[in-house]
Design brief:
mainly alpha; Hyaluronidase domain-like; 3 domains; two-stranded parallel ribbon; two-stranded antiparallel sheet; globular
C-alpha cells in the first residue's frame, strides 16, 4: 500500500543523522508515489489520444488526469521539504536542485494540462495570459535547473528530459503567452524564472555560474561562425532570410562551434587514418541535422496555422530549409571524400602488407609482399558505396521545395553530380577482375 502524505509528514521529523537509511526509504516511496500518479495521468491521456476523435479530453477523464497530476505534484513537494533538511538527510546541492527541478516539472505539467485543453477559455485575455505565465514560471525553474544539472554531470537523462518534455512545453506555453518564436527557449526560461526563488537561483549559480547569461545574437551566419554566437539571419545565393525560430539559431550556433573544433582537429592531426578524420565530422553533421529538423518542424507548425506561402515568415523558412539542407549535404559529401582518399578516388595507392622480420632457421629474412587483389577489390567496393551515398544526397537535395526553381543552382548541382558519377563509373570498371573478367 502506498503511504499517505500526512503519515509521511509526521514521520519525517524523526529522521536524524543516525537514521539516514530510513529517510532514504521515505524519499524512494514518495518518488515512486509521484511517478505512479504521473504515469496514471499520462496513460489516460495517451489512451484518449489513441481514439483519434479530435475532441478535447473532458468530463471524468479530464478530472482524473488533473487529480493524478495534482497528487504527483504534492508528492514532489514532500520530497523537496524532506531533502531541504540538510542536517537530517545529508543531502547535497545536486540532490536538492534535482528534486526542485522534478517538483517544478510536475507543477508545470499540471498547470499546462489545466490550460491546454478541456477548459473554457476566459473572455478576459489578461487572465488567460496570466495563467500561461504562471505555467511558464514553473517550467522555467525546471528548464534552468535541469540545464545546470546537465552542464555539471553531462548525463543524457537530463538532456532527454529537456528535449522531449520541458522545452516543447515551454515553446507552446510561450506561444500562448504571445511570446515571439524568435525568442530562444533558454531566453524564455531566463525571463520567466520567478524572482522570489532567490535561494534556488543561488544554488543554480553555484553549479553553473553562466546559467542566467543570455547568448548574444549576431547579425549574420559568418559573424556567428567567428564569435560562436546565435545568428538571426541566414544567406543563400544573394538572398537573406531571417531565422524564424530560435531553435534553428541555437542549432546553427552549435554547428559553428563544431566547425571550429573540426578545423582545429584536422589541422593538428594530419597524419591520422582517414577513418578517424571522418569520425571527427559527426558533431557538425549532428548539429546541422538538428537545424534541418528544427526548420522542418517550424514549417509544419506554421502550416497548421494556415499561413499562406506568400507570407514573409514562410518565405524565410523555405530559404533557410534549402540552405540548411545544402550545407548538410555538403558536409556529408566532405566526409565521404575523406573516406574515399586522395584525388577523390582517381588513384588507388598500393598497400604493402608487412611481414615479420624474424629470421628463419636458414637465416633467410621474409620479404614484404604487396597487398592481395581481393583486398584492393574490397576497397573499390567501399568507394562505390560512398559514391552512391554522395549521388543520393545530391538527388535528395533536388527534392527540397524551391530547389528546382533556381535553374543556375540545378545546373551547378548536375555538374557536380556528373563528376561523382564519372568517378563511380571509373571505379566500377576497376572492379572487373582481369583473371575472371567478372564485374563486382
Amino acid at each position: 500500500m502506498w503511504p499517505r502524505a500526512k503519515s509521511q509528514s509526521r514521520t519525517r521529523t524523526d529522521c536524524g543523522i543516525g537514521s539516514l537509511l530510513t529517510c532514504s526509504r521515505y524519499v524512494h516511496l514518495l518518488l515512486l508515489s509521484a511517478e505512479r500518479a504521473w504515469a496514471c495521468a499520462m496513460h489516460i491521456k495517451s489512451m484518449r489520444s489513441e481514439d483519434d476523435t479530435g475532441k478535447a479530453v473532458t468530463g471524468y477523464a479530464r478530472e482524473h488526469i488533473l487529480a493524478r497530476l495534482n497528487k504527483a505534484a504534492k508528492y514532489g513537494k514532500e520530497v523537496v521539504e524532506l531533502l531541504s533538511d540538510r542536517s537530517g538527510t545529508n543531502s547535497s546541492d545536486q540532490d536538492v536542485l534535482e528534486v526542485q527541478a522534478y517538483h517544478a516539472s510536475l507543477r508545470g505539467t499540471l498547470l499546462f494540462e489545466k490550460q491546454v485543453e478541456g477548459v473554457k477559455k476566459n473572455k478576459d485575455v489578461s487572465k488567460n495570459q496570466e495563467a500561461w505565465n504562471l505555467c511558464l514560471s514553473e517550467l522555467a525553474v525546471a528548464h534552468i535547473s535541469y540545464a545546470a544539472l546537465l552542464h555539471d554531470s553531462k548525463k543524457d537523462i537530463f538532456k532527454d528530459i529537456l528535449t522531449n518534455t520541458i522545452d516543447p512545453s515551454i515553446r507552446y506555453a510561450a506561444y500562448q503567452a504571445k511570446i515571439s518564436r524568435t525568442v530562444a527557449v533558454s531566453t524564455v526560461a531566463q525571463q520567466s524564472f520567478p524572482s522570489e526563488r532567490s535561494e534556488l537561483s543561488k544554488l543554480v549559480l553555484q553549479i553553473w555560474p553562466e546559467a542566467f547569461e543570455q547568448k548574444q545574437v549576431s547579425s549574420s551566419q559568418k559573424e556567428a561562425e567567428v564569435s560562436g554566437t546565435v545568428p538571426d539571419s541566414i544567406k543563400w545565393r544573394g538572398r537573406s532570410a531571417k531565422i524564424a525560430d530560435a531553435t534553428i539559431g541555437q542549432a546553427l550556433a552549435q554547428a559553428s562551434i563544431a566547425q571550429t573544433t573540426l578545423e582545429e582537429y584536422l589541422s593538428s592531426n594530419q597524419t591520422i587514418p582517414s577513418s578517424k578524420k571522418a569520425a571527427a565530422y559527426d558533431n557538425i553533421l549532428i548539429a546541422y541535422q538538428d537545424a534541418v529538423d528544427a526548420n522542418r518542424k517550424a514549417i509544419e507548425e506554421i502550416e497548421k496555422e494556415g499561413v499562406d506561402e506568400g507570407d514573409s515568415r514562410m518565405q524565410d523558412l523555405r530559404i533557410s530549409d534549402l540552405t540548411l539542407n545544402y550545407v548538410l549535404v555538403s558536409w556529408r559529401i566532405g566526409r565521404n571524400r575523406v573516406l574515399i582518399g586522395q584525388d577523390d578516388g582517381m588513384t588507388l595507392p598500393e598497400q604493402i602488407v608487412k611481414r615479420s622480420k624474424r629470421s628463419r632457421k636458414d637465416d633467410v629474412f621474409r620479404k614484404d609482399k604487396p597487398e592481395a587483389r581481393s583486398r584492393q577489390l574490397q576497397q573499390l567496393r567501399e568507394r562505390v558505396v560512398l559514391y552512391d551515398s554522395t549521388l543520393q544526397s545530391m538527388d535528395n537535395l533536388k527534392s527540397v521545395r524551391g530547389a528546382m526553381r533556381d535553374s543556375t543552382f540545378v545546373a551547378e548541382l548536375d555538374a557536380k553530380r556528373s563528376y561523382f558519377q564519372a568517378l563511380k563509373y571509373v571505379t566500377s570498371l576497376e572492379h572487373s577482375d582481369p583473371l575472371t573478367n567478372d564485374e563486382s
